[in-house]
Amino acid sequence: MIKNKITLNVLADITKRLNGTSDNICAVDVSSKNTGIIVFTGSNVDITEKIAELKRIKEKGFEKGFAFSVAFSFVGDKLLPKDYIINSLTPIEIFGEEDIVKIEEIIEKYSILISPNITLNTVAKVATGVIDTFASNLLWNYLYEGKLVYLDFDSVRKQHGKPSQNKVINNLIENHIRILKEMGVKEIERGRYEEIINGELSGVNPSFKEVNEKNRVITVADLKNIAPNSVLSIPAGAIITPLAKEVASQMGIKLEIGN
User: Fold this and answer.
1) Tens digits of per-residue pLDDT, 16-29?
2) Which residues pair with 234 in a beta bridge?
3) CA dihedral in degrees (74, 76, 80, 83; nearest 10)?
4) Nearest C-alpha neighbor of 156 from the set 170, 142, 143, 139
5) Taking Cα atoms as reference points, which of 160, 148, 84, 176 lies closest to residue 117?
């Protein structure tokens, strides 16, 4: 494992040199609020598309000092295309299961945690206070310290790429997700990584949407592009359909009446 990690870190440095972003060429200030660690757990569902989104975040935020390190869970280390991930994201450092002893050091160096493929196993562990693996321990401690945490729950809701047909299982899954959100997790969705993460880092709040037209009817269609657990500001006098209220409640969207 140690030999494998040394090889990966050497590969990461070579990749950064080829891309002109080696530590010796473009030093990265890891104390910056725009440095993060991307945690990869054991799901490869849509991983190529998600890596492409993370790469765009890095490229657009690089002038502000945005840079990543990556961490692999035990299963993620075995399942995922690590060479492809490293070549795409050119991480500062690479961490693995054996780095569970470096949790405090990682938290101090990287202000943001992102996981594009968090699994039900890790989510369930953190939601119930079980932190016996590298990924669950890292996630728990980031939340414990009040750090920024962005998770894509797609792999949690869709095991093997499809949702469960069991209502009890779906309710259990959503309850675990709800607990993590109450702990401070911000949900990201495939196709919106850049909007949510870069938006917040640049001071734009993508969780706040406003309806400007007065005396209009708010329907389910108005909620289509609203992020879960966000705020929709609507003008006084607007009419909200009962179905829109129900869907908003299910999505955790707060309907805020303006003046």
Assistant:
1) 444 444 343 334 45
2) 257
3) -70
4) 170
5) 160
User: Could you tell me which residues come within 8 angstroms of residue 21 by beta carbon, excluding any fewer than 6 positions away?
Assistant: 90
Distance separating alpha carbons of residues 73 and 35, to the nearest angstrom: 20
Q: Which two tokens stand for residue 108?
A: 């101090």
| Cα–Cα distance measured from residue 198 to residue 61, given in angstroms and rounded to the nearest whole number | 7
Give the pTM.
0.69
Strands (E), the chain: 35-40, 67-72, 94-95, 112-115, 148-151, 158-159, 162-163, 186-187, 208-210, 217-218, 231-234, 239-240, 254-257
Distance of CA 91 to the CA centre of its chain: 16
Distance CA 31, CA 109 (A): 6
Beta carbons of 12 and 91 less than 8 angstroms apart: yes
User: Distance of CA 67 to CAs 89, 92, 113, 241, Å?
Assistant: 9, 7, 12, 44
Close Cβ partners of 65 (under 8 Å, ≥ 6 residues apart): 28, 29, 32, 34, 35
Mean pLDDT of all residues in 41-52: 94
| CB burial of residue 197 (10 Å; 0-12, 13-18, 19+) | buried
DSSP H helices in 110-166: 120-127, 134-144, 154-157
Which residue is associated with the tokens 């998770």? 151
| Structure token digits, residue 179 | 């607990």
User: Does residue 63 or residue 43 have the better pLDDT?
Assistant: 43
Per DSSP, the three-state class of 78 is helix
User: Percent helix, strand, coil in the chain (nearest 5)?
Assistant: 50, 15, 35
